[in-house]
Amino acid sequence: MCTSTEGTRRAPIALHVSDCIVQRDLVRAALRALGIDDLVLAVHDASFPSFADEETGRGSPYTRGGHAMVSFASELGFNGIQLGPQGQTSLGNSSPYDGSVFSKSLLSVALTELASARFASVLRPEEVEAIVEEAPTSRVHAHYNYAFQAHERAVNMAAGRLRAGARAGESYAVDLAARVAAFGEREAWVRHDAIFEALTRSHGTDDWHRWPEADRSLLAPGAGAAQRARVAQIERDRADVVDAWFFGQFVLSEQHALFRAHAHAVDLRLFGDLQVGLSHRDTWSRADLFLASYVMGAPPSRTNPQGQPWGYPVLDPARHDGTTLAFMRARIEKLLDDCDGVRIDHPHGLVCPWVYDATASDDQLSVQRGARLFESPDDPAHPALAPLAIARPDELDRFAPLYADMHVRWLDDAQVARYAIYVDEIVRAAEARGLPRSSVVCEVLSTCPLPLQCVMARHNLGRFRVTQKANVTKPDDSYRSDNAKPEDWIMIGNHDTDPLLLVIDRWRTNGSVKERAAYLASRLEPDETRRARFANDIANEPSGLARAMFAELFASRAKHVMVFFADLFGMREIYNTPGILRPDNWTIRVPRDFRTAYAEACARGEGLDLPRILAVAMRARGEAFVRDHEDLIKALERARE
């Protein structure tokens, strides 16, 4: 049954590689002493830095700059990198959470490598130089549209040159073309996505609902002779597009393997991102996997009181034991073949999705009137959901809102097993690769309905504790660090929140700094007689509150800490404003001069100065702990002297 710190300003720091290696040893020793297993830096592909001679307007982990950034993270003491979704997006939508789930984005191809012997020099150096020369310049912003078109042209050009060389019998091209073909035969999804790309180019849109009827389900199960003939025609007529897609995905696979090997060489694990949404590329010709009448969104919550009408497709429960499970298995196995762990984006969508009428004219109103897919056994507003119900009528709290965490009051073990079908599959895939349970990371934010609580407890999975969102006056607030459990992941913010410095600016404006400082003092100053002074110091010293917020992460019981890159570097730029279409969303990047930028941020007291922050967190454990680790704490405090 499942029921329910210091305040003085310091001189600028000059960080050298040797200093950072010393720092890594100190930081990792401190993490061990504090019982923290993971310190993970979150950076999406587009946000990686590039060196000047490889800058195409958008970042990639596969560039030399990306490799250098990963090495730097290891030197600082991190032991993991959290990537975002890596799929192909469209020209009109740069959100990685709307990208493809099998194919990687061509924007992540490190183009300079295509001009090297490793890829048979299928691009000429001057062609790469021209792309770099024309790229818009910005220290911390990506230029998505330019990069999208430049990478598409470059990959098409390289694939065309490879095809011509192979036809001419050139040995370099024949060998490389054979490797590309073998990759395509091994990875069945490549052909599906290549044909989709060819149709996208032909019809001028990746929204297959706007394509001619004949092209909407060419690869659907049971496709007949006419459809197979149409596919063959596309492969002949748009061989340039199909070949370029195969080539681009092959290159990305090779470059990712090198990147992962580099991460492992510097003792970092990679975490992938299993997004809840699916792109047009993934739903085309797979319509039989999804409900026709309902789509997925987010219910009203403290973060978004109006709810969010995402419009994402919902896997059909009637197919859970067959094709939908095979689809999920293929997704997670590919992701874990590429990475060492997985962040499950909005796991509610796999366990107890909030759904609404797909045919409604007002999506915003419809999502507010929605329901949970498996908790509506007798809802007169959603009679079609009754046959899908897992929760029984007597298990529901009729006085709680449909979206409330405790709308379902209890479940038996058999019901939990039905809710857990997809999460079970993810955990099985991780364990089959020898990965610990902690390699499965659940992005649970403001809401955690009982069915999801039960599924997570089934596998001892933790939730997110986003400390900037904490209501420090409410003892049971889910975001407070003192409510964190060892299995949880704690962080100041993520890709959907404002950076810490902007949040602190807001607290100073609205007058909530003192109550926040008092709470932080209760977490970081074990001597009650000194807490008032501690709180006053961090409230009034310009960088004191930022340092205390960082230290709070390491003073909690959570064994897993995640840091979004903007907070590491003390940035004020916003990466993404959820629910709002803005041209600068998804564009913020790690500064190209990241070593200098980090040193300067730490000197201002605004970056994550790990040695000093960890010393504060260790002193927060009390006198006995400090006595046992006095030498390490003093070494941490001397690290910047």
Essential attributes:
641 residues, alpha/beta, eight-stranded parallel β-sheet, four-stranded antiparallel β-sheet, 25 helices, 14 strands, 9% strand, globular
Describe this structure in words.
- The structure is a single chain.
- Helix 23 runs antiparallel to helix 25.
- The protein has helices at 17-34, 64-76, 111-114, 125-134, 144-167, 171-186, 189-203, 225-237, 239-265, 280-283, 323-338, 348-351, 363-368, 413-419, 421-432, 450-458, 500-510, 513-524, 531-540, 544-555, 565-568, 594-603, 610-619, 623-628, 630-638; strands at 2-3, 38-42, 80-82, 269-274, 290-298, 308-315, 341-344, 354-357, 371-372, 410-411, 440-442, 464-466, 489-491, 560-564.
- The N and C termini lie far apart (56 Å).
- The strands form three sheets. The chain has an eight-stranded parallel sheet with strand order 11-7-4-3-2-14-13-12.
- It is built from 25 helices and 14 strands.
- Residues 5-18 have low confidence and may be disordered.
- 44% of the residues lie in helices and 9% in strands.
- The chain has 641 residues and is an alpha/beta fold.
- It is globular and about 80 Å long.
Low-confidence segments, given as residue ranges, are 5-18
| Strands ordered across the widest β-sheet | 11-7-4-3-2-14-13-12
Shape: globular
Number of helices: 25
Total count of strands: 14
Largest sheet: 8 strands, parallel
Average predicted confidence as pLDDT: 94
Radius of gyration: 26 Å
Question: End-to-end span in angstroms?
Answer: 56 Å
Question: How would you describe the oligomerization state of the chains in this entry?
Answer: single chain
Estimate the strand proportion.
5-15%
Structural class: alpha/beta
**Helical content class:** 40-55%
